[in-house]
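Worked problem 6 (solution included).
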Amino acid sequence: MTNSTVRPPPSERFGSDFARLSRKIADAGLLDRRPGYYALRITVVAGLYVGGWAAVALIGDSWWTLTVAVFLAIVFGQVALLAHDAAHRQVFRRRRASETSGRIAGAGIGMGYGWWQDKHTRHHANPNHEELDPDLDPNLLVWSQDQARAAKGLPRLIGRWQAFLFFPLLTLEGFNLHVSSVKALGNRSFKNRTLDGSLLFAHFAAYLTVLFWLLPPGMAIAFVAVHQCLFGVYLGSLFAPNHKGMPILTGEDRLDFLRRQVLTSRNVRGGRFTDIALGGLNHQIEHHLFPSMPSPNLRKARTIVRRYCEDLGVDYVETGLIVSYRLALTSLHQAGAPLRHPRVPA
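Solution. The predicted structure is:
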């Protein structure tokens, strides 16, 4: 399993378009660590995490506890974003510190660190590649018309109207995160499976014990449903604007590192609130070009990268948040077209 900080191949590091851009970014100091920023962010998110569970204990046997479930869904999303940054070595330069912090953050939300890191590394290496990007696996949805024509079972059934079902299906994403993490424990190619499994089941045990100890069974089940469903919607909403609706690559496409990352990614315009809500992933182009760049530096890098792409004549796509969702849903609807209009045999 490789580390999730993806670097271009050696042939592309010297004298290439990306190498020249990389020198500009390095000269601007945008690859430098931001320890003060991350110390503050980790403290705030950890405080909100502990405060949320304290509120569950204080409110106790009351349906008002479900408002805390909503709050904790957002906090869990922020913890996931911290795990993401740690895995990319944005927080710490050294691998051991990065893995330890990422594993702790992942355990806090019931996510298997090894499974997620492997999946995300492969995504960064080949974003929006139909055969190589695990985020385009047609397990439930189809992402291209070719996948739609070959679909069977559930993807074939859902694919017809997947654009309308996309956000409702995101309510299952939190549960999918847990199930996929547990299933990955059976993959012997992953290192530290015992540690990941111990942390996972410790989270599940603590999570359910606290809820069923503090709340009546019916209320505890309602809390789990509200919390996990909204957590899933938040997670899906973080990643949906980034690549969905952008060009999908196939085995025949041969792009250099810079174009492979820029042409398949979309930025989302917005201010500081957008940066916080999306964890910097709204600057998706810059993040894919420089995965180890601390997220607060991505906004500054945007100016340099956008101007550089304009000089090269490389399309640099940036939209508003609502437009990004519309483009993603439009792409899903078009991908499912063969399932709505099957060809009649001649």
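Discussion: The longest strand covers residues 267-268.
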